[in-house]
């Protein structure tokens, strides 16, 4: 399907949100992605990007949250486009979605970088399916400027007392004081944060999305804590 770029907005100096206008409304399940296809320097390139819409519903507007990888081919191409440009995309697809078995247990969403994108709709769906259970977002980044959708998560926390937001910084915290609720940040990596949360309820289900190294270590740590394969689910990417 051919989509048009309706708008582009900067979330940071290296992350942009592309809002795509589709020729017809499509439905998607929270957590799914689309494949973007392009002919770049005579080579056919395909890359998958999670749908970053706030809510999973039938729509003719899809948001893609994209981080620039200067060593790659697709993201420099996308960052060079303007509004009105056309993109070939697939229909929404993918199995990184909420499991039926997750409805009655606490849900932990763990991510780094643009891995937060599918969690926008997944967390909304999780809270809607069972507003009485606890839902946690553990969101890791290197620096303050890398934190995406910070005010969205703060607002959601204010609206729903069962949603808990745990931002984490691993490198530099310069500029942190300028962010709302800056005292809520953890220092270090995501692993000790979700491990502490899980220690209070080992029956929780964990959804992990982000850098490959983080996902690999999370898998090892979750196994070590005694969680079974039916309790944790992964979507990983490079960059």
Report on the structure:
- There is one protein chain.
- This protein has 239 residues and is an alpha/beta fold.
- The chain folds into 2 domains: 2-89, Translation factors (Elongation Factor Tu (Ef-tu), domain 3, Beta Barrel), CATH 2.40.30; 100-237, Rossmann fold (3-Layer(aba) Sandwich).
- Helix content is 21%, strand content 36%.
- It has 5 helices and 12 strands.
- The protein has helices at 74-79, 119-129, 150-159, 190-199, 212-224; strands at residues 2-10, 15-26, 33-40, 43-50, 59-67, 86-89, 107-112, 135-141, 163-169, 186-187, 205-211, 232-237.
- The strands form 2 sheets. A 6-stranded antiparallel β-sheet has the order 4-3-6-1-2-5. A 6-stranded parallel β-sheet has the order 10-9-8-7-11-12, sandwiched between helices.
- The longest helix has 13 residues, at 212-224.
- The relative contact order is 0.15.
- The mean pLDDT is 94.
Number of strands: 12
Structural class: alpha/beta
Largest sheet: 6 strands, antiparallel
Distance between the termini: 27 Å
- General shape: globular
Order of helices and strands: EEEEEHEEHEHEEHEHE
The gyration radius over C-alpha positions equals 18 Å
Flag low-confidence runs.
Answer: none
The total domain count is 2
Provide the β-strand percentage band.
35-45%
Mean pLDDT: 94
**Strand order of the main beta sheet, please?**
4-3-6-1-2-5
- Helical stretch tally: 5
* CATH A-level architecture of the largest domain: 3-Layer(aba) Sandwich
Instruction: Assign the CATH topology of the largest domain.
Output: Rossmann fold
CATH superfamily of the largest domain: Nucleotide-binding domain of ferredoxin-NADP reductase (FNR) module
The percent range for helix content is: 10-25%
């Amino acid at each position: 399907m051919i989509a048009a770029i309706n708008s582009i907005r900067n979330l940071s100096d290296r992350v942009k949100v592309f809002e795509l206008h589709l020729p017809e409304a499509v439905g998607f399940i929270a957590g799914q992605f689309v494949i973007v296809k392009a002919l770049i320097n005579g080579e056919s390139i395909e890359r998958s990007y999670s749908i970053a819409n706030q809510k999973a519903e039938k729509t003719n507007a899809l948001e893609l949250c994209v981080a620039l990888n200067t060593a790659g081919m697709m993201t420099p191409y996308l960052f060079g486009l303007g509004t009105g440009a056309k993109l070939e995309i697939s229909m929404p697809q993918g199995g990184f979605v909420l499991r039926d078995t997750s409805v009655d247990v606490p849900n932990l969403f763990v991510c780094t970088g643009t891995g937060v994108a599918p969690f926008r709709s997944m967390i909304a769906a999780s809270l809607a399916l069972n507003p009485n259970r606890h839902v946690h977002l553990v969101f890791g980044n290197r620096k303050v400027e890398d934190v995406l959708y910070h005010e969205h998560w703060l607002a959601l926390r204010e609206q729903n007392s069962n949603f808990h937001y745990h931002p984490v910084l691993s490198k530099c915290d310069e500029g942190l004081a300028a962010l709302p609720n800056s005292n809520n940040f953890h220092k270090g990596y995501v692993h000790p944060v979700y491990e502490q949360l899980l220690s209070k309820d080992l029956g929780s289900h964990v959804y992990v999305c982000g850098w490959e190294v983080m996902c690999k270590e999370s898998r090892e740590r979750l196994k070590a804590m005694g969680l079974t394969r039916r309790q944790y689910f992964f979507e990983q990417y490079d960059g």
